[in-house]
Amino acid sequence: MPDDTTVTQTQKTTEKTLVTLLLDRSGSMQSVRDDTVGAINAWLSELRQTEAEMRFSLVLFDDNLGKMELQKLHVANPIQEVPDLKPEDFQPRGMTPLIDAACDTIRAVRESLEGRDDVKVIIAIQTDGDENRSRENRWEDLRALIAECEKSGWQFTFMGCGIDAYGQGARMGIRSENTVSYGKDLLATCAAFAATAENTRLYAAGTRADVSYTAEQKMRSGDRFDPETQESNPAPVTPVIGGLGWGARK
Q: Given CA atoms 198, 218, 77, 14 in this order, what sign does their dihedral have?
């Protein structure tokens, strides 16, 4: 890490950081509900180790009976006062209004910080599926909103569970370095949230320039879709006999 990204211990303790997790509560998350709850609690435990002044918001989103719902479990609470997530607080249901939920959340955070330039902002967006129920906003609206906030130094991450998250991340305007497609098993889920927590804590402390994922972090998270990894490690060529692959033999 370059020397100019490191700050003194005194500076670290005066940093202010607002971390917001926008968590998918759609019905398909039921299959990974318990793993997700455990991984989030491990993430919170890591964030509580920060030396920076950190506040935390947790917002659950879904479309229930034709209406988008954003449930704010925590809103800018001091990280040390944020309790673990309870299984009963996370009950998957409904559809996935990803665009509307992200736009509304980002705008709410921006409004709450209007006139302030002393707060680092990190927004982590998580889902296990494709956008399928937004009505008020389009991809270009979300992309423009994220681009505008990034000009003010905001950091965004996109976490896709069991999906190729890079396509949706690109449509949002989130860089591939800040995107992870993690596996649906417990180890991969925990690894993805642990990586996000570590990067967040170090960025808040001033010892990291951003919250992007390393190749090793993505590998531990079971990421099979990272375009950079695929380019450096192309898929092997299938042996061919008589114009047919081995898999075609009956």
A: positive
Phi, psi of 180 (to 5 degrees): -140, 135
> How does pLDDT run across 181-234, given as a tens digit for each residue?
999 999 999 999 999 999 999 999 999 999 999 999 999 999 999 998 765 554
For residues 166 and 177, the answer to whether their CB atoms sit within 8 Å is no
pTM over 0.85, yes/no? yes
Read off the amino acid at residue 89.
Answer: D
Q: What is the 3-state secondary structure (H, E, C) of the chain?
A: CCHHHCCCHHHHHHCEEEEEEEEECCHHHHHHHHHHHHHHHHHHHHHCCCCCEEEEEEEEEEEECCEEEEEEEEEEEEHHHCCCCCHHHCCCCCECCHHHHHHHHHHHHHHHCCCCCCCEEEEEEEECCCCCCCCCCCHHHHHHHHHHHHHCCCEEEEEEECCCHHHHHHHHCCCHHHEEEECCCHHHHHHHHHHHHHHHHHHHHCCCCCCCCCHHHHHHCCCCCCHHHHHHCCCCCCCEECCEEHHHCC
Residue 115 falls in which region: left (phi positive, over 0), alpha (psi -120 to 50) or beta: left
By the 8 A CB rule, do 210 and 121 touch? Answer: no
Query: How does pLDDT run across 34-87, given as a tens digit for each residue?
Result: 999 999 999 999 999 998 999 999 999 999 999 999 999 999 999 999 999 999
- Cα–Cα distance, 14 to 7 (Å, whole number): 11
CB atoms within 10 A of CB 97: 27
Q: Which structural domains are found in the chain, ordered by start?
A: 8-248 (3.40.50.410)
